[in-house]
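Running this now, will post back.
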Amino acid sequence: MRLALITHKFVRGDGQGRVNYELAGAALAEGHTVFLLATEVAPELKAHSRAYFVPIGISWLPTALLQNQVFAWRTSRWLWRHRSELDLVHANGFVSWSRSDVNSSHFVHDAWIRSRFHTWHTRRDAYGLYQWLYGSTGTWLERGAYRRARCIVAVSEQVRRELIASGVDRERVRVIPNGVDTEEFFPAVAKRPVPGLPQGKIVLFIGDIKTPRKNLDTLLRAMTQVADGTLVVAGDIVGSPYPRMATKLGLDGRVCFLGFRRDIPDLMRAASLFVFPSRYEACSLVLLEAAASGLPIVAGRTTGGTELLTPECSVLLEDSGDHVELAAALNRLLGSAEHLARMGEEARRVALRNTWQRMSARYLELYREVAERRGTENTDDAHPREAGT
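Update: finished.
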């Protein structure tokens, strides 16, 4: 098949970009010709003989809201010229005004903007107003993109429910969870020291710590009631209010802010458990990365992707905003090294059932199904070699 995949990035170091990087690689390995409509594509993908990078230039307009419109217009213009030469188009949310055959939903703006933790409800200033405008516009644009798609893929059961609640026909929604690289993320034979990390039991948190969505504030309050262990936070601290909050709570020495880090696999192998009480998450890659690293997981039950976890490897909080419940879970787990070890072994088994290979195979099977439905399978090897110029 001749496939067009549309997203902003096809790279390993980006959440949605990593999903599409893996999918593009799997499609190429299966013998398909793949056109990558993006602003950035990993060199190894561009070097493949059947991969054609269609560069969508970066707009210099002042906000992401405007930049996304330019991106969508440019991808639509290319598709209008080349659609007849393609067997299938796969988009990711609102990335084009043109119709797609498959559209993956990685985040539902309609659900997030309705949350009481949305930025507009916590910051009634110019930034909060912009976030409300961004979310409202994103909701409208996503609905249009999903109406135009033949099939919508939700990356978690939570996203599926949110799509249906927003008006998407349930019959057109499939669930294909994201995957994990179990060779990049694996358990350490023994916990080894990592430069910059404290000794002893480590409770690891990774995420954006500039907004309240990841719920670090509740975790910090919980740490005031945790008897043992150090909370290690990986995330850019520039503009973050949480280092100051930790000091006010008397947690100096109990919380270590690392800033932005690229050595996430090493951090996970050094940790005792992973905690992720996010207030809204569609399907975070970091959950499966922690599982693949053999870490027990504490997360909110409403976090997308937790349906992949089992009770033997995780503690799912009924209310991720309840710092007392969170502290009790951490104390219970940190109090038994043997229990942590058993949970870590089960977490690894969960990850092995949810690899990138499995995810990609499900997408490729869906491609064949949708292409058959369209009746447009074509074995002609002709392709627009000059498409990216």
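Residues 126-148 form the longest helix (23 residues). More later if anyone needs it.
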